[in-house]
Amino acid sequence: MTENTPNTQNTPHLIPNGKFAFGYYILALAVLVIDQITKIGFQKWLKVEYTSVPVIEPFFNWTLAYNRGAAFSFLANQGGWQKYFFALLGIAVSVFIIRYLRQIPKSAKVLSLGLALVLGGAIGNVIDRFLYGYVIDFIHIHWYDVWNYPVFNVADIGICVGMALVVWDMLFFESKRKNGVS
């Protein structure tokens, strides 16, 4: 064993998730299933893009929107190549997370939870890109007609909350794990 290689026998907080990553895969699957069910439901209910139903006026509507780009419709009007680029990027991120979840220390529960949420959301949006050529969005936060947040979906919530947990882990727990504190 080299000087920089942690000895997992003497540092139980660094024992990898291994087969326990399966629980995080189940969480990712739950996010994926909820995401796909809600997207299908809202697409069948609202039928036409930009159809909007007020829920809590003046700031919350159900609005059917198709995102052909990435976050905030980034690169949406680029002729179609971006669909494949973002789908492949989503697949690459998903494969990385699937493998990495097995290697993360069991003690890194916040990190594992965050990555599981990102995984479910990423796969949910990749499925949309392959099936439809765009991502189905339906949650619309706004303030009258003065301010509109981009329409989003359950997968986006999983990705954003998951990344917030990853950053939270990075800021407050990663150095403790490296220093041997559980």
Automatic annotation (TrEMBL):
Membrane topology value: Multi-pass membrane protein
Localization in the cell: Cell membrane
Protein name as it appears in the record: Lipoprotein signal peptidase
Similarity annotation: Belongs to the peptidase A8 family.
GO biological process: proteolysis
Lineage: Bacteria, Pseudomonadati, Pseudomonadota, Gammaproteobacteria, Moraxellales
Native source species: Moraxella equi
EC main group: hydrolase
GO molecular function, one term: aspartic-type endopeptidase activity
Catalytic residues, chain numbering: 137, 156
Pfam families: Peptidase_A8
Pathway as given in its UniProt record: Protein modification; lipoprotein biosynthesis (signal peptide cleavage)
Residue ranges crossing the lipid bilayer per the database entry: 20-38, 84-101, 108-127, 147-168
